[in-house]
Amino acid sequence: MEEEDQRKVTDLVIELVRRLFSQQNPTPNPPHFSQSLRYAFRILSSRLTPSVSPDADAVAESIKRCLATQGNSSDALTFSDLYTKFASKNGPGSVNNKWAVLYLLKIISEDRKNAVNGMDSSVFLPNLGLNDDETGNDSRVLNGKENGDKAWKNGVLLVSKDPENLREISFREFGNLVKEENEVTEEVLIRDVLYACQGIDGKYVKFDSNLDGYALSDLVKVPRATRTIVRKLCELGWLFRKVNGYISGSMDSFPAEDVGTVGQAFCAALQDELSEYYKLLAVLEAQSMNPIPLVSENVSSGNYLSLRRLSVWFAEPMVKMRLMAVLVDKCKALRGGAMAGAIHLHAQHGDPLVHDFMRRLLRRVCSPLFEMVRSWVLEGELDDIFAEFFIVGQPVKAESLWREGYRLHAGMLPLFISQSIAQRILRTGKSINFLRVCCDDRGWADAATEAVAAAGVTTRRGGLGYGETDALESLVMEAAKRIDKHLLDVIYKRYKFKEHCLAIKRYLLLGQGDFVQYLMDIVGPELSEPANTISSFKLAGLLESAIRSSNAQYDDPDILDRLRVKMMPHGTGDRGWDVFSLEYDARVPLDTVFTESVLTRYLRIFNFLWKLRRVEHALIGAWKTMKPNCITSHVYTKLQRAVKMQLLSTLRRCQVLWDEMNHFVTNLQYYIMFEVLEVSWSNFSNEMEVAKDLDDLLAAHEKYLHSIVEKSLLGERSQTLYKSLFVLFDLILQFRSHADRLYEGIHELQARTVESSSNARVKNKPRQTKDKSSEPGSWISEGRKALTQRASEFLQNMGQDLDALATEYKSLLEGFLALLPVQQHIDLKFLLFRLDFTEFYTRQHATL
């Protein structure tokens, strides 16, 4: 039954072909009949597998669109009517697979329009030519080229099976074409690329110094795509060459200072990464020897590793090698902490691969740096022979160890260590060295052990590393807290820092009143002499006498032993008052606080206070001379009226001027001693109690000293006021000399009056003692009239001098008070309030 059906189908096909030919050529045996018949059988027997979905309406619409675009609108309408009737027929005798019939007719219609080499297009399949000797290979290839675009026409793609091995033929032709374009096989190029990635020149891929990279020679004939991919792959070799060259150069120059331990650790970390890279290259070389699975057995077998597969393998190593090359360029001129900081900047990356790689690298690089931190914080040892640490030490004297012995090197401070932590690290190591060198103390070792136990970290080498910032901060905080506390305990208890500060306040700042008063009384006559005639040994003896005669004798002998007399450099005409001063010998470790510059500022304050006390002492001496007594009252009763009025006026002027000067000096001294010294000392005492480390103590003392200097008119901004004040002091001392001269003249007047009343007794009884009044030209040697005249002239001259002195004093005081409101320090404005409490000067001088 099947054979009959097959025979019927064959007869129907023959009849169909004959009818198709009879429409074009009515002859019984038209030309190409056999070819067309065979072509029809091949179409019917082939397995067509279109890539479009089996949709009859879509194919019909495609046919109509094709007819319309060709200008056959009437044919398109006719086809539409026929398709409507064809699609509407269902049931027995109808065609079930309508889409296949339409698709077959469409393909045949398209093939009839094609012609290749003058032959009828009906003898060919839509996409592959017949395997006949008449057409040949060239015509097949040409037909394939011409019909390649036609296969996609109207959105329909025809894909067929390959019953006559046409695909194999195409593979063979493609292989021949590739061989013609390539002088070098891919296996050789892969081998050269692998060589280049190890920094070795291959046969065809070599390093070009002009291009600064590996490249294929222009003489080698390869496709452009192959040349491009080889150049991209060889970038890895260029990067490897840069990284490996840096490692080799650094290792060869070690132990030079330019490399250092951090640089060596960096090179070791890079070398480890290159070791992993070498392992990958070894695996790839092994892969290159495996055969490639091919479609056909007739094609020669190559290696498994192709250039494209190699690019996939090189993706991750390329990222790492680029990072290493960037780091090498960045760190070429860096070392130590600066190098670690530069690498840390590249670790801030969003790619997990890059982030993990950089962290792994940084743990190796920062290992020497963290070991330096551990050694410095716990042992005070600066193990930095290559100057890589962010703490720099220099040889200094013991008194300068804390301030100048160690400092932060900002250029070596990596960014992952904050400035505050770095300052704590610096201070902790300084504290250990200060205790060891200056205090000769070993208690810091126990404090460091307690800090390690409290922080919960290990003291072994490598216990700290990159990424363990919390552990580092914990260790530094605990070590700093305990070691700083131990240092302050040693300073306060063993070396009695507070007692020494109080001694300086009492003796250099003249806070011990009875001592200062007695010292001024006994050294006053000596200091009135020219400075070049004064013996410092004699002054030292007078200082000892003042100590033994006051409550200072009950102080600690060590403190009293440090108090000494100092004579400042002096010139011609200087008096002892101008060069005398006291100094305090601050020995190690107290000289860390009381440095030479600090003691110089204390000396300035002492000179100011000493001058103020001298002025006060001079006014007290003038008052002792001026107070009413029997001498002045006796003179008052014995003088003529005119001279008597002159004397009273002069004495009144002198008393009023003394009162004004005493008011000014008393209030100024109260301001200095209580509102300046006592307030500053109270604040300093409070800050000493809350100080947590030696830096806090130094800062508190500096603040204390600065407060005294600024409030005492000794600051840079108060120089005009300071000079004006000293001019006032000199004027008051001049007043003392005027007052002494006045009352000396009064004494002479009293003596002359006594002598003139007992002239006979004087003549009969020669004087046993000789004084100024018996000298030729003195008042006593004159008569009574001459005595009155000389007294009048003397009192008149003294009155004029006192008037001039009062005028000058009033002018200077006015200028001094006018400068006080414009001072920036608030306490100096309070001084004006105290001096002008009753608003006497305000009412007297409108400018105030």
TrEMBL record:
It is found in: Cytoplasm, Cytoskeleton. The keyword Cytoplasm applies. Keywords: Cytoplasm, Cytoskeleton, Microtubule. InterPro entries: GCP, GCP_C, GCP_C_sf, GCP_N. Residues 499-841 form the Gamma tubulin complex component C-terminal domain. Residues 757-779 are annotated as: Disordered. It comes from the Eukaryota. Residues 190-493 form the Gamma tubulin complex component protein N-terminal domain. Belongs to the TUBGCP family. PANTHER family: GAMMA TUBULIN COMPLEX PROTEIN, GAMMA-TUBULIN COMPLEX COMPONENT 3. This is Gamma-tubulin complex component.
